[in-house]
Design brief:
Layout lengths: L2 E5 L4 H12 L3 E6 L7 H10 L4 E4 L5 H10 L5 E4 L6 H6 L1 H22 L3 E7 L23 H23 L7 E7 L1 E3 L18 H9 L6 E4 L11 E2 L1 E3 H16 L5 E7 L5 E2 H12 L5 E4 L14 H7 L7 H18 L1
Parallel strand pairs: 1-2, 1-4, 2-3, 4-5, 5-6, 6-11, 7-10, 8-13
Antiparallel strand pairs: 9-12
Helix pairs in contact: 1-2, 1-8, 3-5, 5-6, 7-11, 9-11
The structure holds uridine-5'-diphosphate-4-deoxy-4-fluoro-alpha-D-galactose (UFG).
């Protein structure tokens, strides 16, 4: 059985990907420091799949701990590297924590892979590397733009680190890199697994739209603030390419299969979104329709650092990875609501 190390595998996107991998017959080892998650997620994964993945609680930014992890699981065939801090706001106030955690963990994971001869890694990147693109939908060939926060900068720097490592490997192996690096540039993942056993679990007050909506509908927050209605978009609110987290998880399985083929060598990046834009009011309307709950919200001023609009050209992922998003906005908002209701029942 193909054995995969999933770092950050108890987190939001990680846990959905672990489920998708197990369902495709992969043997999964999760490495996570539980900074943004908890061990209960392992039970939930077992509840969905019937398999409890191996779990290692480890801080990957700690070189010795990371190397020990790789020595223990020297037979892994590939790594999917989710583990990272991900709050835009927090990164602005704690830049060094973000650079230390997100970049050191990547470097030690690459060192660990080198030590055990593991040649494949899928890296969680973000559409944040494009900034506000001049042309939409944005293609993978568009140049990087300056990041608006340290979090975004760690994604761009990580992409460049991976590019340099592949370049060095290519030089060592007469022009064809043995190392395979596949970057998935996520747009805006929302929603939850249909079982409602796993989903997004932000610490404290959510920064992101979907958990703020579901917590407001559940009465945990008083009112949703819609940040800006004077953008140059159809309803005046910013537009994003929302994608169901289960579709995003499936993209990782397709990436694993693509990497295993001889067609792929070196470094490549793929947009993973639905390829269509929605405004904040579209998300609210879909949520109200699917949940039957009237959402209290007010229009406020713009949020600093928000870009006006972005959505992805996903043709490359469709064509090369054989992947396509299957779930629409209504399915995303309904599944997010079911997950919130599950959390309420458990509390
Ligand atoms: N929004 C609100 N009210 C809220 C929260 C969000 O109106 O309470 C709006 C935002 O202004 C934005 C949209 O909802 O227009 C989506 O906001 P999110 O915070 O959910 O997502 P972002 O697009 O801002 O952030 C995402 C990822 C980041 C990534 C960033 C890159 O969450 O990891 O895209 O632009 F860095």
């Amino acid at each position: 059985m193909k054995k995969v190390l999933v770092t950050g595998g108890t987190g939001y996107i990680g846990s959905h990907t672990v489920v998708a991998l197990i369902e495709k017959g992969y043997q999964v080892v999760i490495a996570d420091n539980l900074y943004n998650s908890n061990e209960g997620v392992l039970n939930a994964i077992a509840g969905i799949t019937g398999v409890r993945p191996a779990f290692e609680q480890v801080d990957l930014a700690d070189e010795a701990a990371c190397m020990a992890l790789f020595r223990k699981h020297a037979d892994i065939e590939a790594v999917i590297h989710f583990a990272a801090y991900k709050s835009v706001n927090e990164s602005v106030s704690k830049p060094l924590d973000y650079y230390r955690n997100n970049l050191n963990s990547l470097m030690w994971v690459l060192r660990g892979m080198e030590a055990v001869g593991c040649k494949r890694i899928v890296f969680s990147s973000s559409c944040t590397v494009y900034g506000q693109p001049d042309v939409l939908p944005v293609k993978e060939t568009m140049p990087y733009q300056e990041a608006t926060c340290p979090y975004g900068n760690t994604k761009r720097i990580a992409e460049e680190i991976l590019k340099d490592v592949v370049r060095a490997d290519r030089d060592k192996h007469e022009g064809r890199s043995e190392l395979k690096v596949l970057l998935l540039r996520y747009f805006n993942p929302i929603g939850a697994h249909e079982s409602a056993l796993i989903g997004e679990l932000p610490n404290g007050v959510p920064n992101n739209l979907m958990p703020f909506i579901t917590q407001t509908a559940a009465g945990i927050r008083e009112c949703l603030s819609v940040f800006g209605s004077d953008y140059d978009t159809p309803d005046g609110t910013p537009q994003r390419d929302y994608i169901h987290v289960c579709d995003l998880a499936d993209a990782h399985v397709c990436a694993m299969e693509y990497m295993a083929s001889d067609d792929f060598s070196g470094w490549d990046a793929f947009n993973v979104g639905c390829g269509r834009p929605y405004g904040v009011l579209d998300v609210i309307r879909s949520f109200e329709k699917m949940s039957g709950v009237k959402l209290p919200y007010k229009i406020c001023g713009r949020r600093a650092g928000d870009i006006e609009k972005i959505w992805g050209d996903v043709e490359k992922a469709n064509r090369k990875l054989g992947w396509r998003a299957k779930r629409g906005l209504d399915e995303m908002t309904l599944s997010a609501w079911r997950w919130q209701q599950h959390l309420q029942e458990k509390a």
